[in-house]
Amino acid sequence: MFSVDQVRQSLESAGQTHILQFWPELCEEDRDAFLQELAQLDLRGLKEHCEGAARAAASPAASLDQDIDPVPPEFIGSVRKSEQSCLSLWEDEGLLQISRSRVGVLLLAGGQGTRLGVQYPKGMYNVGLPSGKTLYQIQAERIHKIQELAGVKHGSTCTVPWYIMTSEFTLAPTETFFKENNYFGLEPSNIVMFEQRMIPAVTFDGKVILQGKGKIAMAPDGNGGLYQALVDNKVLEDMEKRGVEYLHVYCVDNILVKMADPVFIGFCVSKGADCGAKVVAKAYPTEPVGVVCRVRGVTQVVEYSEIQPETAKLQGPGGELVYSAGNICNHFFTRAFLNDVAEKFEGKLKQHVAIKKVPFVDSQGNQVKPTKPNGIKMEKFVFDVFPFSRNFVAFEVDREDEFSPLKNADGAATDTPTVARNSLLAQHCRWVTAAGAKLLDQHGHPLPPRASASAGDSPPAQCEISPLVSYFGEGLELLRGKTLTTPFILDEKRAKELQAQ
What we know:
This protein is α/β, with parallel strands linked by helices.
């Protein structure tokens, strides 16, 4: 532990002496806690961090229009455009790797549900499905099912370990939630939770923000903090010990995510890729999503703010958008590539600026809740390792089947609990219809099949299929010729009853 004089000296050289301005007012216990927090800071790198944040916030995003090209077609796979035989081969390859316990999944779960209006981790959120399942439960059950499918196909017992990256805010509630729910039927030793680093928020003139008289305003270092966290928490060693060679990384808020998707895994492995990204076609030219493309010949994600509207609107010969590969935070990495990133490239990752409203104490010690942005949080993004890949591939999937993020409270225009719920229910209605069943409403009237669900659509039928019954629409032959009255939940018990009929 540093002494207060040592800390003061380091803060002086960093130009941050204001951090200790309330030191005389703190009790002994608060002083010890504050010193402990300061000891965990990289005090030597603090000056560089603060000055870099202020510089970055003052610099507008540069336009990259002159330097970008789409990813060449030979490096892109597609659910829609590929032959069924190719999709089957990729799926077989993915299931083979899963059956040999070579595949793990890693969940980026550092964020709280603040924009949803809740103070707990997003994964604990219930979007209002008939079953009442949370995002964590849905994801856990998909892992359970894909282990079962791969094991049955190859006559093996296999494990898909679940690595969950949390933050200081989300670790304890996530651990408690999993324990209270008996780890959703998964083996606890195969769920590895770990924390990403926290870094100080700073003012526009480069000063660390004090959240309290003895507390710095800290924020997670973005989902790109993953690579440092893998090292800090010896996760790569754990993967090696388990024999995990391939990792599927995804974001907690996508209700349609396919855990350890065998088609995506198989595609990436078949192509010899060290790094891959799932993409969806942009809904419209100016949709605010990053685009996977090449900048001066190097693959990366270009933010929508870095492309001019006229470039975003460019069309190919078939009328499709030239820059349409929307990034959805759904990635494939080999363990070897992650080791390379940890050893050689982590320090080269780009820092991104997030301008935020950060509560603080003023110079008189009063607590202030700002009404407009007053601080800078620096973040790294998980996709910023793409340029270091030796063999990068992209895989295009259908948005209505695989991407419906939960970001905003109901009442917002997009990405709300209602949209997420409707997306899943509409998908399950499509599965039931494809299996040869008819859906009736509670009055006995036939329900038409639906292609998709959006905020503007009328709600889909209340028809929910447990991931323990079907991972992605397979195994529903038991519904053929059946007439089902909604609301309808197909769980394992109901499936057995229908099979017995």
